[in-house]
Amino acid sequence: MKKTVVLLGLTLLLFTFALPAAAQAEGADGKPPAQVAMWIAITSGFAMAIAAAGCAIAQAKATSAACEGMARNPGAAPAIRFVLILALVLIESLALYTFAIVFLKVTY
User: For domain 32-107, is the CATH number 1.20.20.10?
Assistant: First the structure.
């Protein structure tokens, strides 16, 4: 518990100091300077890669657990299958939301 509180405090401290550093002046056309736009594209790629990796790991674990559950109790297969499909849809929505945000940020 104490470790979680310390981690949360450090994260909030990091965000507090990152706010002034993230403030950038816009150009005359209302868009960020070219170097800032380049970093937006690079970090957006990393964000999509991290989201895709997290989704892949979560989907693999969910599928593995569902297969194991159906092997142990074949009678519960329809219920397990329904919950598995629902979980996979919710997990995949993380990657889709990340892709939408990345697309909006890069086209900005």
Answer: yes
